[in-house]
Each structure stands twice: as C-alpha cells, then as structure tokens.
Amino acid sequence: MDNIKSFLSSDLQRFEANFNTAVQSKVPLLDKIMKYIVKSKGKRVRPMLVLLSAKLFGEVSDASYRAASLIELLHTATLVHDDVVDDANKRRNMFSINALWKNKIAVLVGDYLLSKGLLLSIRNKDFEILEILSTAVSLMSEGELIQIEKARKLDITEAVYYDIISRKTASLLASSCAAGAFSANQNLEEAKLMEKVGEKMGIAFQIKDDLFDYGSKKIGKPTGNDIKEKKMTLPLIYTLQNCDRVTKTKIKRIFKNENKNKQKIKYIIDTVKEHNGIEYAHEAMLNYRDEALNILSQVKESEAKKHFIDLINYTVEREY
Q: Are 158 and 165 in contact (CB under 8 A)?
C-alpha cells in the first residue's frame, strides 16, 4: 500500500485538498463535524481506484479529481448512515458521528455529504460520472434492504449472498474504477471493462471482511460483530449448508435469539472453523481476486497497471 500511495502522492494530495474544500460549511457545527470526518479518514481505497483507473487510459484530469471527491463523499455519507442503522459507536477506532452528536445530527450530516457530492458533479456538468456513481448508491441501498429482509428469515443462499455484496460493497468499487477510466478519455467501453474489474475486486474485498469476523486480530471491529448484527456471511452460509440438522437448528436459534451472548457467538465461530467455512471463503476470495486480475490483463502494460495489480492483491492480503 505504501508503494501505491507513493506513486499517487501528488495526485492524492490534490484530491485531499479538493475533498477538504468540498465538505466545508459556513455552519459552525457542521464545519466542526466535517473537520472531524476529514481527521478520521480511511485508507482512501476508492479515490485511489479512481486515480489509478484514470492513469491506465490517459492522464488524471480535473474530472478525475472531482470523481474521486464524489466517490469519497458518497462513501462517507453511507458510512455515517450505516452507523445510525447499526447503532454503532465506533468507526475506524474513533467515535462515530452518531455517538458524539446523536442520530438526528448524524442523519443530517449524511444527507449534507450526499448533497455536496451531487452539487460538485452538477456544477461541473460531470453528468456521466454522476450517473455511474448514483447507480452505485442505489444498488447499495437495495443490497442493505435485501440483507435485512433475508436476515429475518435466515434463508440466505450463496447466490443471494453474492447478490447482496455485489450491490452493497462491490458496486462502489466498480463505479470508482468506471468513473476513473471515463474521466480520462470518455470511453464507455473502457469504463465498462474497469467496472467489471472493480466488481470482482469488491466481492473479494467483502469476503476478506467476512473472514476478519472469525479472526483474533484487532482490526477496528470486534470478532463476532457480524453475528451480533445478524449479518449472514459466506463462512457461516457454507457451514449451514454442510452441517447436520441439529447443528443447523442450534446455529439458527443462536443467530436469531442469542446473538449477543459471547459464549454462543464463540460456539458459532468454532463450528464454522470445524466445518471448513474459513477455508471455503478464503478460496472463493482468491478466485474473485484472480478474475479481477484476468480482466485487467486486457489493459496495456504501464506503471499504473502494476500498482493497480498491487492494490487488487492488497484487497485480499490486508490485515485490517
């Protein structure tokens, strides 16, 4: 990751300056919260995807920087809203917006970020890029609702799981790649190609997150957190498909009614490990990583492509 950031150093600096300007507000409380959000920034994977995708097909343009800012505005807005929905008090090892300023303000902050992203694109007539990224936000909302609906019934199959994460996680990474490519040369065909790369990469990214829930390292969220939030992930889905009926009934009962009990959560984690759910998900993750690399092989060789390959590999090798 350090090599990628070094390669994009000047581009990321300009992106950060543009992003900081985009979130400024004349309302003192809102400006205070925006500064807190900027301070608690993440790894900037999505802006890096925009910038690298642009470099694959041309030069990073003003439209590229606006696309990177737009994607980060939309992504940050969805995180703020997610923390309200999940009643989460921490984000990136810092207190969430809702924990510090309560839900009402957090929802309004998320709305503000969304509106700033829309205005940034509309004022600069980046209509194609806005359509690409707005589609992703729509898919993310659909994915979240499908996940909530299925969690109630505990009937998520692998096909449904992949549909959910394709919408929830992969769509934003796919749109980052597509927007970046389009910003360089307005070529829709190349944008579609990069969208496919981002989709496969995004699925691998989410499976890696699923696997963190069964690990022991401190990564910003506690082990078993997905179980507490009643999120059916790939290791668990595989286990439910391959365990005996008694075990399946017990897991479902815990998942539905005792998902806050630490010992019960430990039972589910241990059972998933015993049934090779971790290995199965890990193999699936690598397969999607390889699919992303295979599609990217159609793009001509360049230094940007080498770093893009490194970023795809980082997706599955990261420790947090």
A: no
Burial (CB count within 10 angstroms: exposed 0-12, middle 13-18, buried 19+), residue 204: buried
300 exposure class (CB count in 10 Å sphere: 0-12, 13-18, 19+): exposed
Q: Which amino acid is at 302?
A: S
The number of residues in the chain equals 320
| pLDDT band, very low/low/confident/very high, at 95 (cuts 50, 70, 90) | confident
pLDDT (tens digit per residue) in 222-251: 567 888 877 889 999 999 999 999 999 999
Of 182, 187, 190, 203, nearest to 295 by C-alpha is: 190
Give the range of the structural domain holding residue 129, as residue numbers without chain letter.
2-317
CATH assignment at residue 132: 1.10.600.10
Q: Kindly provide the residue ranges of all beta strands, DSSP E only, lying in the chain, ordered along the sequence.
A: 90-91, 94-95
Q: DSSP string spanning 209-256?
A: HHHHTTS-S--SS-TTHHHHTT---HHHHHHHHHS-HHHHHHHHHHHH
- Do residues 44 and 12 lie in contact, with contact meaning Cβ atoms separated by under 8 Å? yes
Give every CB contact of residue 208 below 8 A, 6+ residues apart in sequence.
Answer: 285, 315, 316, 318
pTM for the full model? 0.90
For residues 217-256, one letter each, b for 16 or more C-beta atoms within 10 angstroms of the residue's C-beta and e for the rest, the string is: eebebebbbbbbbebbbbbbbbbbeebeeebbebbeebbe
Q: Among candidates 173, 191, 170, which has minimal Cα distance to 182?
A: 191
How many angstroms separate the CA atoms of 92 and 26, rounded?
Answer: 27
Greater confidence, 296 or 87?
296
Helices and strands, counts by H and E, the chain: 16, 2
Count of domains forming the chain: 1
User: Which pLDDT tens digit goes with each residue over 3-18?
Assistant: 899 899 999 999 999 9
| Backbone φ, ψ for residue 88 (5° rounding) | -90, 135
